[in-house]
Amino acid sequence: MVEKEQGASEVAPKRRMTLYEQLESGGLASLASMEGSWADWEETEAEPKKSLRILPFGVVGAALVMALAWVLHQLPFPPFTYEGGALEHPIGVSVLAILLGVAVANFFPQLDLSAGCRWITTWCIPAAVVFMGARMDITLLASIGWGLMFTIVGLMVFAVVISYGVGRMFGMSKRASCLLGVGTAVCGSSAILAVAPVAGADDDEVVVTVGVVNLVGLLAMFACVSLLWLMPINASLFGAWAGSTIHAVPQVVAAGESHGVDSAAMATLVKLTRVSMLAPVVLIAALLVARQSSRSGKSRVSSHRKLWQYVPWFVWGFIALVAVRAFGWLPVLEFHPQSSEVIRISLTELLPTMAKWLLALSMAAIGLQVQLRPMLKAGGKAFLAGTISWAALSTVAFFSLRYVLG
């Protein structure tokens, strides 16, 4: 009996960190939250419930950063304002919000606003994407036809191939190179985390590729916005280009919003088309791995989710709102105050405006969670491979889309 008590009192062996904890300790999870998918993560010891007590501080901090971003956005001098230019304010509020958030997080690393910021990204990003559906005119799709769809799919295939080849050239493993390709082609970290179980990837490969894809996606957003200073681009082309090349959904919407609401709607449409391809990508990966496993006599496929569950719920919400607008079911709200004229508010205009500010708040929250130093340690060669892959994809996409859209 004494021996059992002594044995029970011995120190338990050190537990292996879960994937969630590795991402969090490495400073990479903040960018993964761009997908608005924190609710899908399993709760671990790294995220105690008592942290919810400081939730208001994160919300208030993100709101203050967003307010400062709006003030900078309105400053009457370059690069914030170009009088008479094609775009009067080329740097969107959302882009400024994430830049300011990153600056605050890295100059004041002792600040811990993660609870409130994660709450914002969990709820505000999906809502912003859904509300963007109110801006999408279904006739725009009819005018584009199948040409844009085939172009998007072709660019996704190109992204997988070029990322895999560049990854292998820089010494990445086959599985890590495949994950880099899927993340670049589809939707960033969500795609990587969906394909990783069926591909048999280990935690190190997942952690590195998640960090690289999200960091490169952030840089891609800034690069796309910067191009607006150099050359005039119409809203449809810029939106389609951003939507087909930038990695995470809110990065895409933020870049499109820098050009205007029409560009943001097109960017959202193209990006969500890519996201909807995640289920077939997972299926193809599972079939390829199963085929390889049958040859080697080993089975590495381990996934309990159904294919339709890999498509985030906000994709269906966006599609539903697009359909509601197409049928003319979005009402115009009327208010009849006694002391003034009737006030009419169109939901077609109100919802995209709400989406713009929800997105700006979310980008501020994301920026407040980004720690650059640990992120840059995720792997120099992998980061270089991801950057080169995006540059190649971006170049091919720009000229392909310009040809398709005219």
Compact overview of the structure:
This protein is mostly helical and 406 residues long. It is built from 19 helices and two strands.
Describe the structure.
The chain contains 19 helices and 2 strands. The chain is mainly alpha-helical and 406 residues long. The chain has one domain (19-405). Strands 1-2 form a two-stranded antiparallel ribbon. A hairpin with a 7-residue loop joins β1 (332-335) and β2 (343-346). The model is unreliable at 1-34, 36-53 and 299-303 (pLDDT under 50).
Terminal Cα separation, in Å?
83 Å
Helix percent reads 55-70%
Low-confidence stretches: 1-34, 36-53, 299-303
User: Structural class, from helix and strand content?
Assistant: mainly alpha
Q: The biggest beta sheet, please?
A: 2 strands, antiparallel
Rg is 22 Å
On the 0-100 scale, what is the average pLDDT?
Answer: 76
Widest sheet: strand ordering: 1-2
Beta strands, count: 2
Oligomer: single chain
User: Total domains, how many?
Assistant: 1
Shape assignment: globular
Output the helix-strand order: HHHHHHHHHHHHHHHHEEHHH
Percent of residues in beta strands:
under 5%
Q: Helix tally?
A: 19
